[in-house]
Each structure stands twice: as C-alpha cells, then as structure tokens.
Request: fold
Amino acid sequence: MSPALRRRENISGYLFLLPSLVFFVGFVVIPMIMCVVTSFYDANMNLNTPDVFIGFGNYVELWQDPVFIKALVNTFIIVGVSVPFVCAFSLWVASVIYKMREGLLSFFRIVFYLPVVTGSVAVTVVWKWMYNNYYGIFNHLLKGAGIIDSNINWLGDPKYALWCIIIILLTTSVGQPIVLYVSALSNVDQSLVEAAEVDGATNFQVFWRIKWRQIMPTTLYILVITTINSFQCFALIQLLTSGGPNYATETVMYYIYYTAFKLYRFGYGNAMGVILAIFIGLLSALQFRLAKEK
Amino acid sequence: MKKILSIAIALLMIAGVFACNTGKPADNPDQGNSGDTAKEITLWTYPIGNWGDEATVKTLTDAFTAETGIAVKVEYLTYADGDDKVNTALTGKAGPDLIMEGPERLVANWGANGYMVNIADMFDATDKSEINAAALSACFADDKTAYEYPLVMTAHCMGINLNAFKEAGADQYINTDTHTWTTEQFTNAVKALYAKYGDTVGAVFCNGQGGDQGTRALVNNLYGGTFTNAEHTAYTWDDAKNIQALKALYDLEGIAYDASIVGGDEIANFYNGIFKMAFCWNIAQQQNPNSAGTGAGKTANGDEIVFMAFPSQDGKAQLQGGIWGFGIVNNNDNARIEAAKKFIKFMADSEHTADAVRASNFFAARSAVEGKALDVWSSDPIMAEYTKLMPMLGDYYQVTKGWAAARTAWWNMLQKVGASDGSEAAISAAVAEYCTQANDGAK
Reply:
C-alpha cells in the first residue's frame, strides 16, 4: 500500500473515531484528570476561599479516617462475597439450562435477566417493603413459621444490614453472567467434548478439561465486570440505608458521594475516587494475570 | 511526530484542567452590566406545601407574567436529591435565577459560599416592621447582607392518633385545648399505649436527615437541652440534659430508635396506624396527612390526628421553626437579577402575597403588606387552631456554620445511641463523639 493511500485510510479511520473520541475525552478522560488534580487540593464549594494545594494531604487523611477504613472493609466484603457467588451461581444455572429446549431456555433467561433490566429504584422499593421492620414479608413469614419471636429490623440493625444489601446486589448481578455463560457454553466445540467422552472422560473431566478452558474469556469478563460493579455499589446504599446503621453499609462509592455532595469536600472525595480506581485496576489486573496463566 | 502530537495534546489538556481548578474567584463576582429586566427567569422550588404542585404554582406564575411580562420557568425539586441538583448547578455555573427554600440552605449554605445575591436592599423600614423578627433575622447573614426574602413560616410539632390514645386511656395526659404536655405526661402516655398495643408506638427515626427537625426538637425539649449556643457559633447538644433525654427515650418501652426509616417513612407509618405518634409533623401534614389527600387531620382509617407541641418538663415547648422564602442566585446578569427581585416583590410583598402564602399551607412570615394587614387563614379553623403553637417558636439555629455536617452527625449519633447498650456512659460517648464532629465542621 502506498504511503499516500495509507495516510488517507488513517485519516478516514480517525474521522470515524472522532465522534466517540470527543465524548470519551470530554466525559471520561478530562474528568479523570480533573479528579486526580483536584485530589491534591483542599477544594470545597466556597467561592470566597480559593482551593489550596495540599499535595498528598487528602491521601494521608484518608488512612486516618475510620469511616473510610470501614467503608473500604465493607466494600471488600461486598466484592469478596458477590464476585465468587455471582460467577459460581451463574455458571451453575447456565450449565443446567443451556441444553434445554429454546422456549424453556428463553423463559429462564428472562426470569434471571428481569432484575437487571428493571430500574434499580423499582427493585429497591420492593426490597425495602420486604425488609420493612413493621410490615415486611420476611418478618411476617419468619414469625409465622415460629423462627423469630419479634420483628427483626433488617436494614436498621448493623448485624443484618450489609447482608441485606449483598442479597439484593446478588439478585441484580446474576442475570447478565447467566446469559453470557449460556452463550459461551453453547459455543464450546462439541467435537472436543465428544472425543473426550469417547475416550472415557467423566462429566467433571469434560467440564474441567474442555468446557472450563473454552469459557475462560467469558469467565474473565464476568469476573472483571462483577468486580467493578461490586466496587461501585452505590444506588442500593443511597436508597436504603444511607451508609448506616453505624456505617455498617458504608461503601467507598457512597462515602465519595457523601463527602463531595453533602460535606462539599471535593478534594477529599476525589482522593477517595482515585484510591478506589487504583484498587479496581489492581484487582482487575490480577484477574487478567491469573486467567492468562490458566 | 504522532507521539509528539499526542504528548502536546495531553499536556494542553492537563494545563487546561489546572487552569480550571485554580480559577475560583476570590471575591463575589461582578453582577453584570446589562441594564434592562430579563423577559424570562427560572425558579427552582422545593416542595413547600403546594409550591411543589405544578398546577398551583402555574396559577401564581401566570399572574406574575400577566402583570410584568416576565415568563417564569419552574423546576420542582425534592428533598431527596434537590441539594445535589442545586450544588451541581451552582458549581457548574448553571444555577437558576431563584431558589425557594429556607435560610439553612439559602443563607447558611449557598449564601455563605458566595453563590447568592445580597438582597438586603429589598428590605425597607416598613418591611422590617412587618416581617416576623425571627424570620427576618434568619434571612440575614449579617446586618448588611440578606440572602433570602421570607414568604412563609411554621412551627414544627408532633402528631398523635387521638383514637389510639383514647383506647389506651392515654388521652388523660394531653391537653387538646392548648396542645401541650409535660415530659411526665408524655412518658405516661407512651407507657399506656405500649401496655395497650405491645409494640412500637413512636420511633426516633435516624436513617438519614429527612425530618430530623422532629428528633432534634423531641430530644431538646424533654429536659430543656439545646442544640446550639445562642450566638449560633457552636453545637451544644452534648449537654447533660440532652443525654438524659436520649437515655429516657432509649429506656422507654414503645419508643424505638429506628435506623431504617426517615421522617417521611415515619409519617407514612403514623398515617397507616402503625405508629400512634409522629415526631415529624406540621400544619401542612395536619391539613393533608401523608400527602394522601384523604382528609385533613385523619389517618388512613379515619382516626383523628391531633397536633401537639413537643413535651417538656414545664409544658412550655421551644418549637423548631420552619422559614421559607426566595433567594436570588448570582448569575452575573443584572437584568435577570432585577427580574428575580420583581418576582420576589410580587410574591412576598404585594397584594398577591396572600395567594402565595395560601399555596404553601403555612403561615405568612409577615403580619401586613405595605401597611395593610395580611389575612390569609382567618376562615380556616384548622389553621386558626394551629396558630396556638406559633408563640412557642424557639431559636432558629439552622443557620449555624457547618449545618450540613452537623445534621449528618446528629442522625449518625442517634444510630449509635440506638445500637448501644443504653448505658449513660455509652450514650454520653456517642453524643460527645458526634457533637465534636459537628463542632469541627463549624470551624
């Protein structure tokens, strides 16, 4: 290809990229840079006091802030519970349903995908009603079955609140992985499966030696996406508990929002955002590396 | 070449960001130089009675437009996310021309942070003599700086289910004529209700800040505690009287510290008959309980609701005031500012003020308009009865510095008290921790 033709093609390519690039730069890259820059300032909402450059002051303060530490621990609990559960559960469901006839398969896909497409506010309202301290269905059923004597304040008791949030998160997180796994399992090379079976491989060996390896890219994608979603758990907290009781459900995402929009400490909130991004990046990189080794 | 270009663009972007970040003006910006009045202004209003209802507000703004030729675009905010919207708009220099809210936001927050126009020139001697002194004072940041023009005010109170009280024999502890009771009577009433119903009859709600004026007033009144000092420079809720009140509430069977609900949930539970008393109540709720439109002063099943002052040792409560009015956002455009001032004058200081007040379901913040007595509610028996509470209005301390952080500290403190073992030491420690946090925010 001549240099002139190559240049013309390059220009065409960049022109096609341009609209997306403008939005990507405007709404992702520049805010990211602003976030990093602002995190080095004692920035607030007050027009009468200029922002002061404080270097790593916000970052130092973060590690002395017990609420941030609590939020970080809660976030890791959410990630630690939800990521393995979502992967294992969705793989199990997908491996059960992917061989079903088309109508039944679609039915299950719809059932599991419904909470994903339903608005988070609507989902939260229903769960809030079910968890209600005074007339919620969980208390009604448990009391009716004689399991509890008095109502449990599910969202108002530090012992239960975080687990209640995790349960809702799980129901809204498994839909997409199930659909992806169904698709990935359907695309496994059947000739390899049949050859292994002819050679006397057990079901477990077929799964572990052939299917698992072939669906590894899907697993990696699900791991990364679920990890990021779990790290960014926010709407449920805001709508249900505001991080309480006693910070039992405080997550880093919610604490960022609270610090920036309630206390107007923009610099401090941005510093938290940077730390969160670093953690997500590190964990995602680790997942990529492990999957690559496999 | 490509690499050099990429690096140059990246450096340019970073430089731009630094430039943006440090571009905060040190002083209040100049208020523009256009001389005429704008032909259109925007108003953002919180749901202050029917000022959150589009049809009602349209009637008022249409009247304004007809008289002045200035169109008004209205956006309706909620208390759930209204602050976030306003903060984002103000910091992004995309704020409205007018905001309708109270001094805790207009004066102590957005005004103090330099986003509002000083409208002290709108208050002449006649206005100052006609506007309620407490409301007037709350609208001024200092002698020469006002960020709000008050329209309406009320006293927040509590509501009780009279039918439930009668069934439990607790009605003997309330005075339905004066709407007052003592701490001892309140305690006895809760005991009687709990004996009758065997469940939570009232909740110290603390899921968030929604309706926290109720829990603050309850705790402060029980044994005469205070929330701030008289100068509004420090938070004082760590005094022994408040700790005594928090412990008394903790120990009182039938009252629960509930970290799963806010004021709105409490009202809904009260309206639906689950609670027998509500600490988040006012005249707007009395007129239209739970905003359900099922009749004034009635619960969902028709039980009678009686509004009550908060209980105190001597029966003389210090009620929390609610003041609402208009503030002008500094958009550096004199024409828009002038139009906004005309709007305020029309709504809060003219013959149309009675209609604007009526729309709120609250009481006028002034007794007269330009010398002519303001009669809004004389024909409404519920409003007339509610005026008995107005002399009990206490200190309007919501303008204390660091108010947003203090509110958060308050409900977090209640959560910690509720989750504690109820010992005086645990409650004192929780109170001290969060009161210190609030005072740190006030520095």
In short: The two ends of chain A are 39 Å apart (CA to CA). Chain A touches chain B through 38 residues (CB under 8 Å).
